[in-house]
Amino acid sequence: MKQTARKIFTIIGLLLFSCYYAGTTFFIHTHTIDGEQIVHSHFSFGGDGSSHTHTKAEIKLIATLSSFAMVLVAAFALREVDRKLLGKIVLPILTRKSSFAHHCASLRAPPVVVLAD
To answer: Any idea of the CA torsion for 10, 13, 27, 45, to the nearest 10 degrees?
Structure first.
């Protein structure tokens, strides 16, 4: 059950990423608003992508969503890098130090030989 759910979430995530990537890569167009050129991308059902207009609020929303998506992708990527670094570099060092301290810090006295007279 757990593996099936993981596969389903993996497929859904891959599908969402593919759609987002296609939408931001294949439908790039520019608008001139208040003398400034704004380049963005989104799917449009009309033939020419630049024949439509956007309000300032829509432009801000598109920019915010794009920024949020990039921050989210970067956060997940850094999380995976951090997890791998922790497992390969930091944990072996901590294990080595703790095993060394375990063998050296003994409160037991060394054996003593008593000779009878």
So the answer is: 110
